[in-house]
UniProtKB/TrEMBL annotation:
Belongs to the PhoU family. It comes from Dyella japonica. It holds the Pfam family PhoU. The lineage of its organism: Bacteria, Pseudomonadati, Pseudomonadota, Gammaproteobacteria, Lysobacterales. InterPro entries: PhoU (IPR028366), PhoU-like_sf (IPR038078), PhoU_dom (IPR026022). This is Phosphate-specific transport system accessory protein PhoU. Its main location: cytoplasm. Residues 24-111, 130-212 form the PhoU domain.
Amino acid sequence: MSGSSKEHIIKSYDDELTRLTGEIVRMGELAVSQLEAAIDVIDRRDERAAQHVVNNDDAIDLLEQEISHDVVRLLALRAPIAGDLRNVFAALRIAADIERIGDYAANVAKRSIPLSMVAPIAPTSGLGYLAELAAQEVRDVLIAYRDRDAERAYQVWKDDAELDEAYTGYFRQLLTYMMEDPRNITPCTHLLFMAKNIERIGDHATNIAESIWYQVNGEPLTAQRAKRDFTSNPELTKLGNKPE
């Protein structure tokens, strides 16, 4: 193979990888928009708009399928090895995580429909803060992916502890409302599920961060991440005490 032919193949692969990265970043931005739209319809108590957000999840699913096909084609035509292979597999894994983020955003919108049918309660506004943290995580990790910035990805990985802590505090607040007045049980139950969906979005952002770390460094991220989601701790129901 001549030098010019080899250079052409490398450039072609680089071009395809750049295009694939762009597709994944756009897919991630769409997922973040879905989350923000879901929070907006909760505040407006708009059932029709909520259903629109749910239906829009199909667009993210379709993008994930298209990206999967692109990855398979890239594997078949370019036969990448070593670092190039890590780039391709990272794209596949990251697209799958973004698809799940879109699912969780749609679930939040779906839960907002029955929530809008009951009287509003004060804790509803707390979801917005959780969503802001989760959306920022996803945005930051998308930038890290676009720029192949392992250190930025690692920062997102660490920062997820802040979302876990906020989620635990919100969980505690909702339990208090449920215990104070049985009429709050139904709306607070919806809010609990919605908050858990948002917390899971943060978990998928950390999955993406781990994929980026491996993509760039060729080794898994093995550090122990601080986990501050204590909601599975039975002691949490003792609302006056903080879990150890």
